[in-house]
């Protein structure tokens, strides 16, 4: 049963509030990594685990929390996800141990469960005519939150120390949890035949995802042909095969492999992976390019704060994408915004390959790139939800989010390797040729994502035709 228009407006506002917290938690630490390295007396390579710990926890827990929400009720799992962010922030502001800081960042990763759970709530609770717009807005809020997180952290570091960043995240987490508690009705789950979950499936999923993401995230620092990276990739392959075997034989799988094998779901997951590759690769190369000293003949000598501010057009593009995507989906279905999103992302990165002499070029490309990723990510859940029953909404979108994370880690690693492989003589700064190559690689990722929807033959069910 759906809610009245007034109550559904409050619910959607709560979902947007909750969804914005998670990307802010991911990106807010980027400007403060040097400060954290100094505060905790660790190396630059060690402090990168502040990002990696969050990435690993989010990747592992997102599909698990989505599945548990389908089984036992999404409201309580939403609150658990947000309280993980709160607990992590409390620990981060109070600890003087780097090990405990990593635990705090892992607790922040519990917030990754908000995305699939929010989609499940929207599909189940919002009036059908508002569901498409709601999903589009929640999807695009990820990009908005990512940009705002970097800017907010840069501003806070101008006046206070790194703890101010975690204090802000603590407040945002509490506000989001309160909004969910007040606006989201209690539910008992929708997967009535799902039974329980397999602990072995959860453990093997966690092991192979962690091994894969650590290898990809640390490959540039450890060496891609080194023993540690190759060993982790081997572990990931073996345990993934074991996980597939466990899931295919258990009566109540954590992730239904038959669902993943459906062409619409599989191809949409591929599009999400490629879009994640392009998006995070673009973030890396654009912010790095802005900070290159102008004495090298390119770049803008931007501080971390200014580089973050240069991403604001990206957030503005994401914001505009929410309304545009909902209109396009209602009139033409999800294929148009997904294709258009990839094309816009590719165009923005290709533009920077040839035009990068002015900050205006970066602002323009950022706005177009943000509009493109916003359109793509708004269309993706519509495709996924059209191919799965309501009882699998959260876990299906959670799995999609994990594959997006894998794509993001790969995009960051590949662009990082390209930039590190060609540097200005006597410095660690990448050359202009390296940046141009990185721009083209991210453009290729977006272009590949734009091609995928043409292989999806089934007609997605419009959101207003679904039975909530």
TrEMBL record:
Membrane topology: Multi-pass membrane protein
Keyword Transmembrane: yes
Transmembrane segments: 47-65, 77-94, 100-122, 134-156, 162-184, 196-216, 222-244, 265-286, 298-330, 337-356, 362-380, 401-421, 433-456
Primary localization: membrane
Protein name (Swiss-Prot/TrEMBL): MFS family permease
Key words, A-Z: Membrane, Transmembrane, Transmembrane helix, Transport
Ranges of residues in domain Major facilitator superfamily (MFS) profile: 11-461
Organism: Streptosporangium brasiliense
Family annotation (Pfam families): MFS_1 (PF07690)
Keyword Transmembrane listed: yes
Classification via InterPro entries: MFS, MFS_dom, MFS_trans_sf
Domain of life, source organism: Bacteria
